[in-house]
Specification:
Blueprint: H1 7-26, E1 38-39, E2 46-47, H2 49-71, H3 88-98, H4 105-124, H5 128-132, E3 135-137, E4 140-141, H6 142-148, H7 151-166
Helix pairs in contact: 1-4, 1-7, 2-3, 2-4, 2-7
C-alpha cells in the first residue's frame, strides 16, 4: 500500500502491519526469544526478538510522550529527551534496557499490544485535517510522524523476523 494520506488509511496500515507482526512474534518459541541472532538497530550489533519488541514499545511510548508534551503545552522533545536524530542507535539501546526487566516474552508482547491500542486511540482523536493537512514537525504531518514510528517499524520488524526464520 502507498503511504497513508488520511486517518482511515493510517488506521488500516497500523492494523494490518501490527496483526501480521503479532502473528510472526507468536511463532517465535519462548526459549529463542532472548537469543541475539538478529541484526541490531545500531551498526554492528545483534539483538534478540525480545529486544525488537522492546524497541517497538519504546517508539510507541515516544509517540505517546510527544502528544502528552503537546497536550500539557510543553515543548515537544524530538526524538526523545537526551537524544538527537543522529543517535537513534543509542536510543534503540535505551529501549532494549527499558524493558529488560520484563522476563516473560508473552508479557512483553502484551505490553506491545497495550501500546498499540493506546496508539490507535491517539489516532482516533484526530481529524484527517489534524493528521494530514498541516505540518506538525518540520515538513512532516502528525499522521506521517505517527506512521514513521508505528506501522513502518512494525513492517521492518516483520522483515527482520522473516529473515531470522529463513536463516
Amino acid at each position: 500500500m502507498a503511504v497513508p494520506s488520511n486517518k482511515e488509511e493510517l488506521l488500516h496500515e497500523m492494523d494490518k502491519s501490527f496483526f501480521l507482526l503479532i502473528k510472526k512474534l507468536d511463532e517465535i518459541p519462548d526459549q529463542k526469544a532472548s537469543l541475539k541472532n538478529m541484526e541490531g538497530h545500531a551498526k554492528g550489533t545483534q539483538m534478540s526478538p525480545r529486544q525488537l519488541v522492546s524497541y517497538l514499545i519504546g517508539w510507541g511510548e515516544t509517540v505517546l510522550a510527544w502528544h502528552q508534551q503537546e497536550a500539557f503545552g510543553q515543548e515537544i522533545v524530538f526524538p526523545s529527551q537526551g537524544y538527537k536524530w543522529n543517535q537513534l542507535g543509542l536510543l534503540a539501546q535505551k529501549f532494549y534496557e527499558d524493558y529488560d526487566h520484563v522476563k516473560s516474552f508473552e508479557e512483553l508482547k502484551n505490553l506491545l499490544q497495550e501500546n498499540y491500542l493506546q496508539l490507535i486511540n491517539l489516532v482516533e482523536i484526530y481529524t484527517d485535517k489534524e493528521l494530514y493537512q498541516k505540518p506538525w514537525y518540520g515538513k512532516w504531518t502528525r499522521g506521517r510522524m505517527i506512521q514513521f514510528n508505528t506501522s513502518s517499524p512494525y513492517k521492518n520488524a516483520i522483515g527482520r523476523i522473516n529473515k531470522l526464520n529463513r536463516a
